[in-house]
Amino acid sequence: xxxxxxxxxxxxxxxxxxxxxxxxxxxxxxxxxxxxxxxxxxxxxxxxxxxxxxxxxxxxxxxxxxxxxxxxxxxxxxxxxxxxxxxxxxxxxxxxxxxxxxxxxxxxxxxxxxxxxxxxxxxxxxxxxxxxxxxxxxxxxxxxxxxxxxxxxxxxxxxxxxxxxxxxxxxxxxxxxxxxxxxxxxxxxxxxxxxxxxxxxxxxxxxxxxxxxxxxxxxxxxxxxxxxxxxxxxxxxxxxxxxxxxxxxxxxxxxxxxxxxxxxxxxxxxxxxxxxxxxxxxxxxxxxxxxxxxxxxxxxxxxxxxxxxxxxxxxxxxxxxxxxxxxxxxxxxxxxxxxxxxxxxxxxxxxxxxxxxxxxxxxxxxxxxxxxxxxxxxxxxxxxxxxxxxxxxxxxxxxxxxxxxxxxxxxxxxxxxxxxxxxxxxxxxxxxxxxxxxxxxxxxxxxxxxxxxxxxxxxxxxxxxxxxxxxxxxxxxxxxxxxxxxxxxxxxxxxxxxxxxxxxxxxxxxxxxxxxxxxxxxxxxxxx
Amino acid sequence: xxxxxxxxxxxxxxxxxxxxxxxxxxxxxxxxxxxxxxxxxxxxxxxxxxxxxxxxxxxxxxxxxxxxxxxxxxx
Lengths: 528, 75
Description:
The structure holds two protein chains of two kinds. By secondary structure, chain A is mainly α. Chain A has helices at residues 6-21, 27-40, 44-77, 84-132, 149-164, 174-182, 195-203, 210-243, 251-281, 299-305, 308-324, 326-339, 341-344, 346-364, 368-397, 399-402, 405-428, 431-443, 450-453, 461-483, 486-491, 494-511. Chain A starts with 5 loop residues before the first helix and ends in a 17-residue tail after the last helix. Chain B has helices spanning 2-11, 31-45, 56-59, 62-74. The chains are: A mainly alpha, B mainly alpha. The A-B interface holds A 88, 165-167, 300, 304, 315-316, 319-321, 323-326, 329, 332-333, 336, 345-346, 348-349, 352-353, 385 and B 27, 30-32, 34-36, 38-40, 42-43, 48-52, 54, 75.
Protein backbone atom coordinates (compact mmCIF):
# COMPACT_ATOMS: atom_id res chain seq x y z
CA UNK A 1 0.00 0.00 0.00
CA UNK A 2 1.79 3.11 -1.23
CA UNK A 3 1.47 6.45 0.51
CA UNK A 4 0.15 7.80 -2.78
CA UNK A 5 -2.60 5.19 -3.19
CA UNK A 6 -6.30 5.71 -2.55
CA UNK A 7 -6.20 2.66 -0.26
CA UNK A 8 -3.72 4.44 1.98
CA UNK A 9 -5.91 7.55 2.26
CA UNK A 10 -8.84 5.28 3.19
CA UNK A 11 -6.59 3.52 5.70
CA UNK A 12 -5.75 6.85 7.38
CA UNK A 13 -9.37 8.03 7.36
CA UNK A 14 -10.34 4.88 9.31
CA UNK A 15 -7.27 4.82 11.56
CA UNK A 16 -7.38 8.38 12.96
CA UNK A 17 -10.89 8.21 14.52
CA UNK A 18 -10.37 4.62 15.68
CA UNK A 19 -7.08 5.56 17.37
CA UNK A 20 -8.69 8.38 19.36
CA UNK A 21 -11.98 6.60 20.10
CA UNK A 22 -10.63 3.37 21.61
CA UNK A 23 -9.64 3.35 25.32
CA UNK A 24 -6.21 4.95 25.61
CA UNK A 25 -4.53 1.78 26.86
CA UNK A 26 -5.44 0.12 23.53
CA UNK A 27 -4.01 2.86 21.32
CA UNK A 28 -0.63 1.26 20.83
CA UNK A 29 -2.38 -2.05 20.10
CA UNK A 30 -4.38 -0.30 17.35
CA UNK A 31 -1.13 1.08 15.92
CA UNK A 32 0.47 -2.38 15.99
CA UNK A 33 -2.52 -3.92 14.18
CA UNK A 34 -2.55 -1.03 11.67
CA UNK A 35 1.20 -1.38 11.07
CA UNK A 36 0.97 -5.09 10.36
CA UNK A 37 -2.10 -4.55 8.16
CA UNK A 38 -0.14 -1.90 6.23
CA UNK A 39 2.78 -4.31 5.91
CA UNK A 40 0.53 -7.19 4.85
CA UNK A 41 -0.36 -5.20 1.72
CA UNK A 42 3.29 -5.59 0.66
CA UNK A 43 2.85 -9.38 0.84
CA UNK A 44 2.24 -11.84 3.64
CA UNK A 45 5.63 -13.48 3.08
CA UNK A 46 7.34 -10.15 3.97
CA UNK A 47 5.80 -10.38 7.44
CA UNK A 48 7.87 -13.48 8.18
CA UNK A 49 11.10 -11.46 7.86
CA UNK A 50 10.01 -8.53 10.00
CA UNK A 51 8.82 -11.01 12.62
CA UNK A 52 12.20 -12.77 12.52
CA UNK A 53 13.98 -9.46 13.12
CA UNK A 54 11.56 -8.51 15.91
CA UNK A 55 11.74 -11.83 17.77
CA UNK A 56 15.50 -12.27 17.41
CA UNK A 57 16.07 -8.68 18.62
CA UNK A 58 13.68 -9.23 21.50
CA UNK A 59 15.57 -12.36 22.57
CA UNK A 60 19.03 -10.81 22.19
CA UNK A 61 18.08 -7.58 24.02
CA UNK A 62 16.53 -9.54 26.93
CA UNK A 63 19.62 -11.74 27.10
CA UNK A 64 21.94 -8.69 27.22
CA UNK A 65 19.69 -7.09 29.86
CA UNK A 66 19.68 -10.27 31.94
CA UNK A 67 23.52 -10.47 31.84
CA UNK A 68 23.80 -6.80 32.84
CA UNK A 69 21.46 -7.36 35.82
CA UNK A 70 23.41 -10.50 36.81
CA UNK A 71 26.63 -8.47 36.74
CA UNK A 72 25.16 -5.79 39.02
CA UNK A 73 23.83 -8.40 41.46
CA UNK A 74 27.15 -10.24 41.56
CA UNK A 75 29.12 -7.04 42.16
CA UNK A 76 26.69 -5.96 44.90
CA UNK A 77 26.91 -9.34 46.64
CA UNK A 78 30.72 -9.50 46.46
CA UNK A 79 31.45 -5.85 47.15
CA UNK A 80 33.53 -6.60 50.26
CA UNK A 81 35.74 -9.34 48.91
CA UNK A 82 36.60 -7.81 45.52
CA UNK A 83 39.35 -5.22 45.18
CA UNK A 84 39.39 -2.61 42.38
CA UNK A 85 41.44 -4.75 39.99
CA UNK A 86 39.21 -7.80 40.39
CA UNK A 87 36.06 -5.73 39.87
CA UNK A 88 37.59 -4.21 36.74
CA UNK A 89 38.54 -7.64 35.38
CA UNK A 90 35.06 -9.03 36.16
CA UNK A 91 33.37 -6.07 34.47
CA UNK A 92 35.58 -6.45 31.38
CA UNK A 93 34.78 -10.18 31.17
CA UNK A 94 31.04 -9.52 31.44
CA UNK A 95 31.18 -6.72 28.89
CA UNK A 96 32.91 -9.05 26.44
CA UNK A 97 30.23 -11.68 27.05
CA UNK A 98 27.48 -9.14 26.36
CA UNK A 99 29.33 -8.04 23.24
CA UNK A 100 29.30 -11.62 21.93
CA UNK A 101 25.54 -11.81 22.50
CA UNK A 102 25.12 -8.49 20.65
CA UNK A 103 27.28 -9.81 17.82
CA UNK A 104 24.97 -12.80 17.49
CA UNK A 105 21.98 -10.49 16.99
CA UNK A 106 23.83 -8.23 14.55
CA UNK A 107 25.19 -11.08 12.42
CA UNK A 108 21.79 -12.78 12.26
CA UNK A 109 19.84 -9.68 11.24
CA UNK A 110 22.40 -8.05 8.98
CA UNK A 111 22.86 -11.55 7.55
CA UNK A 112 19.18 -11.64 6.51
CA UNK A 113 19.55 -8.18 4.95
CA UNK A 114 22.78 -9.17 3.20
CA UNK A 115 21.38 -12.39 1.74
CA UNK A 116 18.12 -10.87 0.53
CA UNK A 117 19.53 -7.59 -0.77
CA UNK A 118 23.05 -8.38 -1.96
CA UNK A 119 23.03 -12.01 -3.18
CA UNK A 120 22.11 -10.97 -6.72
CA UNK A 121 24.83 -8.29 -6.83
CA UNK A 122 27.49 -10.61 -5.39
CA UNK A 123 26.56 -13.43 -7.75
CA UNK A 124 26.55 -11.24 -10.84
CA UNK A 125 30.08 -10.13 -9.89
CA UNK A 126 31.06 -13.76 -9.40
CA UNK A 127 29.50 -14.66 -12.76
CA UNK A 128 31.66 -12.04 -14.47
CA UNK A 129 34.76 -13.73 -13.04
CA UNK A 130 33.46 -17.14 -14.15
CA UNK A 131 32.86 -15.71 -17.62
CA UNK A 132 36.41 -14.41 -17.86
CA UNK A 133 37.86 -17.80 -16.99
CA UNK A 134 35.34 -19.55 -19.25
CA UNK A 135 33.49 -21.51 -16.60
CA UNK A 136 29.92 -20.57 -17.58
CA UNK A 137 27.60 -18.75 -15.18
CA UNK A 138 25.48 -19.52 -12.13
CA UNK A 139 21.78 -18.84 -12.10
CA UNK A 140 20.98 -15.81 -9.93
CA UNK A 141 18.07 -16.60 -7.58
CA UNK A 142 15.15 -14.17 -7.56
CA UNK A 143 14.94 -13.47 -3.83
CA UNK A 144 12.17 -11.60 -2.06
CA UNK A 145 13.16 -8.13 -0.82
CA UNK A 146 10.75 -7.19 1.99
CA UNK A 147 9.53 -3.59 1.96
CA UNK A 148 11.59 -1.23 4.12
CA UNK A 149 14.01 -3.99 5.21
CA UNK A 150 17.03 -1.63 5.23
CA UNK A 151 15.15 0.87 7.40
CA UNK A 152 13.64 -1.49 9.96
CA UNK A 153 16.82 -3.57 10.23
CA UNK A 154 18.91 -0.45 10.92
CA UNK A 155 16.41 0.92 13.41
CA UNK A 156 16.18 -2.37 15.32
CA UNK A 157 19.93 -2.97 15.29
CA UNK A 158 20.37 0.56 16.65
CA UNK A 159 18.09 -0.51 19.51
CA UNK A 160 20.24 -3.61 20.18
CA UNK A 161 23.46 -1.57 20.24
CA UNK A 162 21.83 1.00 22.56
CA UNK A 163 20.75 -1.79 24.92
CA UNK A 164 24.33 -3.11 24.91
CA UNK A 165 25.60 0.42 25.63
CA UNK A 166 22.92 0.85 28.34
CA UNK A 167 21.60 3.92 26.50
CA UNK A 168 18.04 2.60 26.42
CA UNK A 169 15.84 0.25 28.44
CA UNK A 170 15.26 -3.37 27.44
CA UNK A 171 11.73 -3.80 26.08
CA UNK A 172 10.20 -6.76 27.96
CA UNK A 173 6.98 -6.88 25.94
CA UNK A 174 7.54 -8.45 22.48
CA UNK A 175 4.38 -6.86 21.08
CA UNK A 176 5.68 -3.41 22.01
CA UNK A 177 9.00 -4.12 20.33
CA UNK A 178 7.05 -5.33 17.28
CA UNK A 179 5.40 -1.89 17.09
CA UNK A 180 8.75 -0.09 17.42
CA UNK A 181 10.10 -2.21 14.53
CA UNK A 182 7.07 -1.95 12.27
CA UNK A 183 5.55 1.48 13.04
CA UNK A 184 3.95 1.99 9.64
CA UNK A 185 4.59 5.68 8.77
CA UNK A 186 8.36 5.29 8.91
CA UNK A 187 8.57 1.74 7.60
CA UNK A 188 8.83 2.76 3.97
CA UNK A 189 11.59 5.36 3.98
CA UNK A 190 12.47 6.29 7.53
CA UNK A 191 13.40 8.42 9.39
CA UNK A 192 15.50 5.88 11.29
CA UNK A 193 14.41 6.53 14.88
CA UNK A 194 16.24 5.81 18.11
CA UNK A 195 14.47 3.63 20.67
CA UNK A 196 15.06 6.22 23.40
CA UNK A 197 13.31 8.89 21.26
CA UNK A 198 10.35 6.93 19.91
CA UNK A 199 9.42 3.96 22.12
CA UNK A 200 7.81 5.82 25.01
CA UNK A 201 5.81 7.99 22.61
CA UNK A 202 4.45 4.89 20.89
CA UNK A 203 3.19 3.25 24.07
CA UNK A 204 1.95 6.24 26.08
CA UNK A 205 -1.72 7.29 25.90
CA UNK A 206 -2.48 10.21 23.59
CA UNK A 207 -5.44 12.56 23.93
CA UNK A 208 -6.76 14.29 20.83
CA UNK A 209 -5.00 17.64 20.43
CA UNK A 210 -6.77 19.71 17.78
CA UNK A 211 -3.79 21.94 17.06
CA UNK A 212 -1.31 19.06 16.70
CA UNK A 213 -3.80 17.11 14.58
CA UNK A 214 -4.28 20.06 12.21
CA UNK A 215 -0.50 20.60 12.04
CA UNK A 216 -0.11 16.91 11.21
CA UNK A 217 -2.67 17.08 8.40
CA UNK A 218 -1.06 20.25 7.03
CA UNK A 219 2.31 18.53 6.95
CA UNK A 220 0.80 15.49 5.17
CA UNK A 221 -0.80 17.78 2.57
CA UNK A 222 2.51 19.61 2.06
CA UNK A 223 4.22 16.25 1.51
CA UNK A 224 1.67 15.21 -1.11
CA UNK A 225 2.12 18.56 -2.87
CA UNK A 226 5.88 18.03 -3.15
CA UNK A 227 5.54 14.43 -4.23
CA UNK A 228 2.59 14.59 -6.65
CA UNK A 229 2.88 18.08 -8.11
CA UNK A 230 6.66 18.43 -8.35
CA UNK A 231 8.51 15.10 -8.03
CA UNK A 232 6.16 12.97 -10.11
CA UNK A 233 5.94 15.66 -12.80
CA UNK A 234 9.74 15.76 -13.13
CA UNK A 235 9.76 11.95 -13.22
CA UNK A 236 8.09 12.06 -16.65
CA UNK A 237 11.09 13.94 -18.11
CA UNK A 238 13.55 11.80 -16.17
CA UNK A 239 12.11 8.62 -17.68
CA UNK A 240 12.62 10.01 -21.18
CA UNK A 241 16.16 11.19 -20.44
CA UNK A 242 17.09 7.81 -18.96
CA UNK A 243 15.38 5.66 -21.57
CA UNK A 244 18.24 6.40 -23.98
CA UNK A 245 21.10 8.12 -22.07
CA UNK A 246 23.47 8.17 -25.07
CA UNK A 247 20.91 10.22 -27.00
CA UNK A 248 20.72 12.85 -24.28
CA UNK A 249 24.29 14.02 -23.76
CA UNK A 250 26.01 17.35 -23.18
CA UNK A 251 23.55 19.98 -22.01
CA UNK A 252 20.91 17.34 -21.36
CA UNK A 253 23.17 15.81 -18.67
CA UNK A 254 23.27 19.18 -16.89
CA UNK A 255 19.50 19.32 -17.22
CA UNK A 256 19.17 15.81 -15.77
CA UNK A 257 21.39 16.73 -12.83
CA UNK A 258 19.27 19.79 -12.04
CA UNK A 259 15.94 18.03 -12.54
CA UNK A 260 16.97 14.99 -10.48
CA UNK A 261 18.20 17.21 -7.64
CA UNK A 262 14.78 18.82 -7.41
CA UNK A 263 12.95 15.53 -7.96
CA UNK A 264 14.73 13.59 -5.22
CA UNK A 265 14.42 16.53 -2.81
CA UNK A 266 10.66 16.86 -3.44
CA UNK A 267 10.19 13.10 -3.42
CA UNK A 268 12.19 12.24 -0.30
CA UNK A 269 11.33 15.29 1.81
CA UNK A 270 7.70 14.93 0.65
CA UNK A 271 7.64 11.33 1.86
CA UNK A 272 9.21 12.33 5.18
CA UNK A 273 6.66 15.17 5.53
CA UNK A 274 3.86 12.63 5.14
CA UNK A 275 5.54 10.33 7.69
CA UNK A 276 6.16 13.05 10.28
CA UNK A 277 2.69 14.50 9.63
CA UNK A 278 0.98 11.15 10.31
CA UNK A 279 2.99 10.71 13.51
CA UNK A 280 2.08 14.25 14.58
CA UNK A 281 -1.61 13.64 13.93
CA UNK A 282 -1.26 10.56 16.16
CA UNK A 283 0.32 12.72 18.89
CA UNK A 284 3.97 11.80 18.31
CA UNK A 285 7.07 13.71 17.34
CA UNK A 286 9.58 12.04 15.02
CA UNK A 287 13.11 13.32 14.43
CA UNK A 288 13.48 15.65 11.46
CA UNK A 289 15.40 14.12 8.56
CA UNK A 290 16.25 17.30 6.65
CA UNK A 291 17.45 20.78 7.52
CA UNK A 292 17.61 22.90 4.35
CA UNK A 293 20.30 20.72 2.70
CA UNK A 294 20.62 22.88 -0.41
CA UNK A 295 21.85 25.82 1.68
CA UNK A 296 24.97 23.82 2.68
CA UNK A 297 28.34 25.43 2.04
CA UNK A 298 30.25 22.13 1.94
CA UNK A 299 29.71 18.42 1.37
CA UNK A 300 30.29 17.73 5.05
CA UNK A 301 27.62 20.25 5.98
CA UNK A 302 25.29 18.84 3.31
CA UNK A 303 25.48 15.40 4.92
CA UNK A 304 24.65 16.92 8.30
CA UNK A 305 21.48 18.31 6.72
CA UNK A 306 20.36 15.57 4.29
CA UNK A 307 18.90 12.25 5.51
CA UNK A 308 20.07 13.22 8.99
CA UNK A 309 18.91 10.07 10.76
CA UNK A 310 20.79 7.78 8.39
CA UNK A 311 23.93 9.91 8.68
CA UNK A 312 23.82 9.91 12.47
CA UNK A 313 23.18 6.14 12.48
CA UNK A 314 26.34 5.53 10.47
CA UNK A 315 28.30 8.04 12.58
CA UNK A 316 27.25 6.58 15.95
CA UNK A 317 27.20 2.88 15.12
CA UNK A 318 29.87 2.51 12.42
CA UNK A 319 32.22 5.49 12.19
CA UNK A 320 32.91 6.06 15.90
CA UNK A 321 33.23 2.40 16.94
CA UNK A 322 35.48 1.73 13.95
CA UNK A 323 37.61 4.83 14.55
CA UNK A 324 38.27 4.15 18.23
CA UNK A 325 38.53 0.34 18.21
CA UNK A 326 41.77 -1.20 19.48
CA UNK A 327 43.20 -2.15 16.03
CA UNK A 328 42.58 1.41 14.83
CA UNK A 329 44.32 2.86 17.90
CA UNK A 330 47.28 0.57 17.21
CA UNK A 331 47.28 1.69 13.59
CA UNK A 332 47.24 5.29 14.81
CA UNK A 333 50.32 4.73 16.96
CA UNK A 334 52.09 2.88 14.14
CA UNK A 335 51.28 5.52 11.53
CA UNK A 336 52.41 8.34 13.83
CA UNK A 337 55.70 6.55 14.45
CA UNK A 338 56.33 5.84 10.77
CA UNK A 339 54.65 8.70 8.91
CA UNK A 340 55.07 11.54 11.38
CA UNK A 341 52.52 13.08 13.73
CA UNK A 342 50.71 15.26 11.22
CA UNK A 343 50.06 12.63 8.54
CA UNK A 344 50.02 9.65 10.91
CA UNK A 345 47.10 10.89 12.99
CA UNK A 346 44.95 11.29 9.89
CA UNK A 347 45.43 7.72 8.61
CA UNK A 348 42.96 5.93 10.95
CA UNK A 349 40.39 8.75 10.66
CA UNK A 350 40.48 8.66 6.88
CA UNK A 351 40.40 4.87 6.81
CA UNK A 352 37.31 4.79 9.05
CA UNK A 353 35.69 7.51 6.90
CA UNK A 354 36.30 5.50 3.73
CA UNK A 355 34.85 2.29 5.21
CA UNK A 356 31.82 4.20 6.51
CA UNK A 357 31.11 5.77 3.13
CA UNK A 358 31.62 2.45 1.36
CA UNK A 359 28.95 0.93 3.63
CA UNK A 360 26.69 3.99 3.19
CA UNK A 361 26.88 3.48 -0.57
CA UNK A 362 26.14 -0.21 -0.21
CA UNK A 363 23.18 0.54 2.08
CA UNK A 364 21.63 2.64 -0.69
CA UNK A 365 21.67 -0.23 -3.14
CA UNK A 366 23.25 -3.40 -4.40
CA UNK A 367 25.23 -2.00 -7.30
CA UNK A 368 28.67 -0.71 -8.22
CA UNK A 369 27.17 2.73 -8.92
CA UNK A 370 26.08 3.07 -5.29
CA UNK A 371 29.52 2.07 -4.00
CA UNK A 372 31.21 4.57 -6.33
CA UNK A 373 28.67 7.18 -5.21
CA UNK A 374 29.63 6.59 -1.57
CA UNK A 375 33.35 6.66 -2.28
CA UNK A 376 33.09 9.86 -4.34
CA UNK A 377 31.29 11.58 -1.45
CA UNK A 378 34.07 10.37 0.82
CA UNK A 379 36.74 11.65 -1.59
CA UNK A 380 35.20 15.12 -1.71
CA UNK A 381 34.95 15.27 2.10
CA UNK A 382 38.56 14.13 2.61
CA UNK A 383 39.96 16.46 -0.08
CA UNK A 384 38.06 19.35 1.54
CA UNK A 385 39.54 18.34 4.88
CA UNK A 386 43.05 18.38 3.40
CA UNK A 387 42.44 21.76 1.79
CA UNK A 388 41.10 23.27 5.02
CA UNK A 389 44.40 25.06 5.87
CA UNK A 390 44.24 26.66 2.42
CA UNK A 391 40.63 27.76 2.99
CA UNK A 392 41.64 29.14 6.41
CA UNK A 393 44.42 31.19 4.79
CA UNK A 394 41.95 32.45 2.21
CA UNK A 395 39.52 33.51 4.98
CA UNK A 396 42.30 35.33 6.84
CA UNK A 397 43.55 37.02 3.66
CA UNK A 398 40.08 38.08 2.45
CA UNK A 399 37.91 38.35 5.59
CA UNK A 400 35.27 40.61 4.02
CA UNK A 401 34.87 38.54 0.89
CA UNK A 402 34.75 35.18 2.66
CA UNK A 403 32.09 36.36 5.12
CA UNK A 404 29.97 38.08 2.47
CA UNK A 405 26.50 36.92 1.52
CA UNK A 406 27.50 36.50 -2.12
CA UNK A 407 30.39 34.19 -1.28
CA UNK A 408 28.06 32.10 0.92
CA UNK A 409 25.62 31.77 -2.00
CA UNK A 410 28.49 30.81 -4.32
CA UNK A 411 29.51 28.04 -1.88
CA UNK A 412 25.92 26.79 -1.66
CA UNK A 413 25.54 26.66 -5.46
CA UNK A 414 28.91 24.91 -5.80
CA UNK A 415 27.87 22.27 -3.21
CA UNK A 416 24.46 21.83 -4.83
CA UNK A 417 26.03 21.20 -8.24
CA UNK A 418 28.72 18.90 -6.91
CA UNK A 419 26.21 16.80 -4.97
CA UNK A 420 23.92 16.75 -8.01
CA UNK A 421 26.76 15.54 -10.21
CA UNK A 422 27.63 12.66 -7.86
CA UNK A 423 23.96 11.87 -7.32
CA UNK A 424 23.48 11.27 -11.06
CA UNK A 425 25.13 7.88 -10.46
CA UNK A 426 21.74 6.95 -8.94
CA UNK A 427 20.04 7.74 -12.22
CA UNK A 428 22.21 6.09 -14.82
CA UNK A 429 22.87 3.06 -12.57
CA UNK A 430 26.04 2.31 -14.50
CA UNK A 431 29.41 3.73 -13.57
CA UNK A 432 30.90 3.66 -17.09
CA UNK A 433 27.85 5.32 -18.66
CA UNK A 434 27.79 7.98 -15.92
CA UNK A 435 31.46 8.90 -16.36
CA UNK A 436 31.07 8.98 -20.15
CA UNK A 437 28.08 11.29 -19.87
CA UNK A 438 29.90 13.54 -17.40
CA UNK A 439 32.63 13.83 -20.04
CA UNK A 440 30.04 14.72 -22.68
CA UNK A 441 29.19 17.90 -20.74
CA UNK A 442 32.58 19.20 -21.88
CA UNK A 443 32.74 17.65 -25.33
CA UNK A 444 29.17 17.81 -26.70
CA UNK A 445 28.07 21.40 -27.15
CA UNK A 446 24.33 21.12 -27.79
CA UNK A 447 23.01 23.90 -25.58
CA UNK A 448 21.31 25.55 -28.55
CA UNK A 449 18.89 22.67 -29.03
CA UNK A 450 17.90 22.53 -25.33
CA UNK A 451 14.97 25.02 -25.45
CA UNK A 452 13.22 22.89 -28.09
CA UNK A 453 14.57 19.59 -26.74
CA UNK A 454 13.12 20.26 -23.29
CA UNK A 455 9.66 20.15 -24.80
CA UNK A 456 10.25 16.70 -26.28
CA UNK A 457 10.76 15.06 -22.89
CA UNK A 458 7.07 14.61 -22.13
CA UNK A 459 6.64 17.96 -20.39
CA UNK A 460 5.01 21.06 -21.84
CA UNK A 461 5.65 24.73 -21.07
CA UNK A 462 2.90 24.61 -18.42
CA UNK A 463 4.67 21.73 -16.68
CA UNK A 464 7.94 23.64 -16.48
CA UNK A 465 6.08 26.66 -15.12
CA UNK A 466 4.47 24.45 -12.44
CA UNK A 467 7.87 22.92 -11.56
CA UNK A 468 9.47 26.36 -11.34
CA UNK A 469 6.59 27.69 -9.25
CA UNK A 470 6.80 24.63 -7.02
CA UNK A 471 10.53 25.20 -6.51
CA UNK A 472 9.90 28.84 -5.54
CA UNK A 473 7.19 27.77 -3.07
CA UNK A 474 9.47 25.09 -1.55
CA UNK A 475 12.35 27.57 -1.25
CA UNK A 476 10.12 30.24 0.33
CA UNK A 477 8.61 27.78 2.83
CA UNK A 478 12.09 26.52 3.68
CA UNK A 479 13.41 30.06 4.34
CA UNK A 480 10.32 31.11 6.32
CA UNK A 481 10.30 27.92 8.42
CA UNK A 482 13.97 28.42 9.27
CA UNK A 483 13.35 31.91 10.68
CA UNK A 484 10.40 31.00 12.89
CA UNK A 485 7.88 28.14 12.90
CA UNK A 486 5.80 28.90 9.81
CA UNK A 487 2.79 26.85 10.91
CA UNK A 488 2.84 28.47 14.35
CA UNK A 489 2.66 31.86 12.69
CA UNK A 490 -0.12 30.74 10.35
CA UNK A 491 -2.03 29.30 13.30
CA UNK A 492 -2.42 32.86 14.58
CA UNK A 493 -4.25 33.68 11.32
CA UNK A 494 -6.82 30.88 10.88
CA UNK A 495 -8.48 32.34 7.77
CA UNK A 496 -5.18 32.72 5.92
CA UNK A 497 -4.16 29.25 7.09
CA UNK A 498 -7.33 27.61 5.71
CA UNK A 499 -7.06 29.54 2.44
CA UNK A 500 -3.46 28.37 1.97
CA UNK A 501 -4.31 24.77 2.84
CA UNK A 502 -7.30 24.90 0.50
CA UNK A 503 -5.03 26.21 -2.24
CA UNK A 504 -2.53 23.44 -1.57
CA UNK A 505 -5.29 20.81 -1.71
CA UNK A 506 -6.62 22.20 -4.98
CA UNK A 507 -3.06 22.24 -6.35
CA UNK A 508 -2.60 18.58 -5.39
CA UNK A 509 -5.94 17.59 -6.93
CA UNK A 510 -5.64 19.64 -10.11
CA UNK A 511 -1.90 19.80 -10.72
CA UNK A 512 -0.76 16.40 -9.40
CA UNK A 513 0.94 14.41 -12.15
CA UNK A 514 -1.82 11.80 -12.39
CA UNK A 515 -2.34 11.36 -16.10
CA UNK A 516 -4.48 8.65 -17.68
CA UNK A 517 -4.75 5.42 -15.65
CA UNK A 518 -3.21 7.18 -12.66
CA UNK A 519 -0.64 5.13 -10.77
CA UNK A 520 1.64 7.43 -8.77
CA UNK A 521 5.19 6.21 -8.76
CA UNK A 522 6.72 4.76 -5.64
CA UNK A 523 9.01 6.96 -3.57
CA UNK A 524 12.64 6.86 -4.68
CA UNK A 525 13.83 5.88 -1.20
CA UNK A 526 11.42 2.90 -1.12
CA UNK A 527 14.00 1.08 -3.21
CA UNK A 528 16.74 1.55 -0.62
CA UNK B 1 43.93 20.49 31.52
CA UNK B 2 46.56 22.58 29.75
CA UNK B 3 47.60 19.56 27.64
CA UNK B 4 43.98 19.04 26.59
CA UNK B 5 43.54 22.72 25.69
CA UNK B 6 46.72 22.52 23.64
CA UNK B 7 45.33 19.57 21.65
CA UNK B 8 42.07 21.42 21.08
CA UNK B 9 43.82 24.65 20.05
CA UNK B 10 45.97 22.77 17.55
CA UNK B 11 42.75 21.67 15.82
CA UNK B 12 40.94 25.03 15.86
CA UNK B 13 43.32 27.89 16.74
CA UNK B 14 40.54 30.48 16.44
CA UNK B 15 38.31 29.01 19.20
CA UNK B 16 38.52 29.91 22.90
CA UNK B 17 38.18 26.40 24.29
CA UNK B 18 38.45 27.45 27.93
CA UNK B 19 35.16 29.36 27.58
CA UNK B 20 33.26 27.41 24.89
CA UNK B 21 30.41 25.29 26.31
CA UNK B 22 28.65 23.98 23.17
CA UNK B 23 31.42 22.60 20.99
CA UNK B 24 29.19 19.88 19.51
CA UNK B 25 25.83 21.64 19.57
CA UNK B 26 27.34 24.70 17.86
CA UNK B 27 29.07 22.52 15.27
CA UNK B 28 32.60 23.64 16.23
CA UNK B 29 33.75 20.03 16.52
CA UNK B 30 32.51 17.64 13.83
CA UNK B 31 32.83 13.86 13.66
CA UNK B 32 36.28 14.00 12.02
CA UNK B 33 37.50 16.38 14.73
CA UNK B 34 36.11 14.13 17.46
CA UNK B 35 37.91 11.06 16.20
CA UNK B 36 41.15 13.02 15.79
CA UNK B 37 40.67 14.25 19.35
CA UNK B 38 40.06 10.72 20.69
CA UNK B 39 43.27 9.42 19.05
CA UNK B 40 45.23 12.42 20.40
CA UNK B 41 43.87 11.82 23.91
CA UNK B 42 44.77 8.15 23.61
CA UNK B 43 48.30 9.12 22.65
CA UNK B 44 48.84 11.89 25.24
CA UNK B 45 46.82 10.64 28.26
CA UNK B 46 46.96 6.90 27.50
CA UNK B 47 43.19 6.75 27.95
CA UNK B 48 40.90 4.96 25.50
CA UNK B 49 37.54 6.64 25.02
CA UNK B 50 35.01 3.96 24.00
CA UNK B 51 32.48 4.69 21.25
CA UNK B 52 29.55 4.73 23.70
CA UNK B 53 31.12 7.70 25.51
CA UNK B 54 31.21 9.76 22.32
CA UNK B 55 28.08 11.78 23.08
CA UNK B 56 27.60 15.58 23.03
CA UNK B 57 27.50 15.81 26.86
CA UNK B 58 31.09 14.56 27.03
CA UNK B 59 32.47 16.68 24.19
CA UNK B 60 30.60 19.98 24.52
CA UNK B 61 33.32 21.65 26.61
CA UNK B 62 36.94 21.16 27.62
CA UNK B 63 35.79 20.70 31.23
CA UNK B 64 33.36 17.91 30.32
CA UNK B 65 36.05 16.22 28.27
CA UNK B 66 38.57 16.49 31.09
CA UNK B 67 36.01 14.99 33.48
CA UNK B 68 35.54 12.07 31.10
CA UNK B 69 39.30 11.51 30.82
CA UNK B 70 39.61 11.51 34.63
CA UNK B 71 36.66 9.11 34.98
CA UNK B 72 38.09 6.67 32.44
CA UNK B 73 41.53 6.96 33.96
CA UNK B 74 40.15 6.04 37.40
CA UNK B 75 38.26 3.04 35.99
